[in-house]
Write a structure and sequence with these properties.
Helix content is about 25%, strand content about 25%. By secondary structure, it is α+β, with helices and mostly antiparallel strands. A seven-stranded antiparallel β-sheet has the order 15-12-14-13-17-18-16. It has a five-stranded antiparallel β-sheet with strand order 5-6-10-8-9. The protein has a four-stranded mixed β-sheet with strand order 1-2-4-3.
Length: about 450
């Protein structure tokens, strides 16, 4: 191990209650892998924590030995920041505890929890908080970058539902943060990513949801894309907060409700979730069916936890992924035309362009209330390039970058930090907008030496 004697490694292992993996260990190769197969870093040591004391010991170790390190929660970050080369991966993925306070409607999560872990625990009481749309995503990274999903129009972003966090800062202090305790740090952690410490527990406000919701897909032919996407853009401007509709255009997977002749062909799909009374929801979604002549639809009442996992088969680990993203306050004709142009030249069968609809409650928070400030972002567009082999890298990445450039004139300010890749450090200040200078000052206060730097990094200068 670079710069560290075998004696120091053995001393660390002696006091560590979790497991320590070195490159020669049998499970090392599997454990170092993360969701995005484009990231192939090899840490010198993996410290798989099982307790708060393990986290403290790991952080003390890398600080004392001046080692690079990464922090892994769910390992789902597109930029690959959960694994580093020639340093220590502080792996929190085994710390998956969830506690639900049914009476107070609060949920507490350890940093290794995935959405599936948290959703299952909360839904046992008919409760939920806004999280993402892929159940294998880690709640920690999702939350620290902002977080949004199907419930966000009704209940806000994930960070809008944070009541408190326990965090270990760069100097080893263990602090509780909330609106009344270490409020400046609480402000920065809500959107500032992993720049200020290791969060060891999240406290969320929960809301009555489900356990069943009206949800599903309507799939239209690609030759109707202009009509469907234009109507989608107008419809989503006035729909009720209980309803969320996202748009995705891609090659059709082999969905059982679609004719086999459609499989592998370009399509436009509307993904729908209504969190209120299903009978009322049916009235609200009926106009969507008139956007075109659909290939087919699959809409019905099902458990919220099932809907949260519906897109997992399209987002499995092991593929190569590259994203580019814009915020939009509205979707005009220029943006729609660009989407159609590039959706017609998908470089692989797994590539897609999707538009997540925000608005509603997400836009009612003040932009200065927390580090995430893009409250005018009614839509987040993500061009998701996904493929299998390194030989396809150039073609797929070039397509994503060209599409990003083509749509830039129509985008609004800011960007969603969780969607930035590892080659977009030049967009970090732009992503935070008016919050950036305050984040720099906060970084100076809580991490003046930039100990936490394997992230979308905010420099303390």
């Amino acid at each position: 191990m670079n710069h560290i004697s075998q004696t120091a490694i053995e001393a660390f292992k002696a006091d560590f209650s979790g497991s320590v993996m070195l490159p020669d260990d049998v499970q090392y190769e599997e454990t170092r892998q993360i969701w995005n197969a484009m990231i192939d870093h090899r840490p010198s040591m993996i410290a798989r924590c099982s307790s708060l004391d393990d986290i403290v010991q790991s952080l003390n170790y890398v600080r004392a030995n001046d080692l690079p390190f990464s922090i892994r929660g769910g390992g789902h970050n597109i930029a690959g920041n959960s694994v580093c080369d020639n340093g220590v991966m502080i792996d929190l993925s085994l710390m998956k505890g969830v506690l639900i306070d049914q009476k107070l409607h609060r949920g507490y999560a350890e940093p290794g929890c995935t959405l599936a872990d948290f959703d299952a625990s909360a839904q046992a009481y008919g409760l939920a908080t806004p999280l993402g749309i892929n159940s294998t995503t880690g709640v920690a990274g999702l939350t620290l970058g902002g977080g949004f999903g199907w419930l966000s129009r009704k209940y806000g972003m994930t960070i809008d539902n944070l009541l408190g966090m326990d965090v270990i800062t760069a100097d080893g202090q263990q602090l509780h943060t909330s609106e009344t305790e270490n409020a400046d740090l609480f402000w920065g952690l809500r959107g500032g990513g992993g720049n200020f410490g290791i969060v060891t527990r999240f406290e969320y406000q929960l809301h009555p949801v489900g356990p069943n919701v009206l949800c599903g897909l309507i799939v239209f032919p690609f030759d109707q894309a202009k009509s469907v996407i234009t109507q989608f853009a107008r419809f989503t401007e006035t729909m009720p907060d209980e309803l969320n509709v996202w748009m995705v255009t891609r090659k059709a997977p082999p969905l059982p409700f679609l004719p086999k002749t459609v499989h592998g062909k370009e399509i436009v799909a509307l993904a729908i979730c209504y969190t209120g009374d299903p009978a009322e929801g049916e009235k609200h979604i009926e106009p969507l069916r008139g956007f075109g002549t659909a290939h087919g639809e699959h809409i019905g009442v099902q458990p919220y936890t099932d809907w949260q996992q519906a897109f997992d088969p399209l987002l499995t680990s092991g593929a190569r992924n590259y994203w580019k993203s814009h915020n939009f306050s509205s979707l005009g004709e220029g943006a729609v035309d660009a989407i159609i142009e590039y959706a017609g030249t998908l470089p692989s069968s797994q590539c897609e362009i999707f538009i997540a609809t925000l608005g509603g409650q997400t836009g009612r928070a003040q932009s200065e209330a927390m580090a995430y400030s893009s409250r005018d972002a009614n839509y987040v567009l993500n061009v998701h390039a996904r493929w299998e082999t390194a030989a396809e890298d150039e073609r797929c990445i070039d397509w994503a970058r060209e599409f990003f450039t083509r749509t830039q004139p129509y985008a609004s300010d800011g960007a969603y930090i969780n969607f930035l890749t590892d080659d977009e450090t030049d967009r970090i200040a732009f992503a935070y907008g008016a919050s950036y200078e305050r984040l720099v000052e906060l970084k100076k206060k809580f991490d003046p030496t930039n100990l936490f730097r394997v992230n979308q990094n905010i420099l303390p200068a």
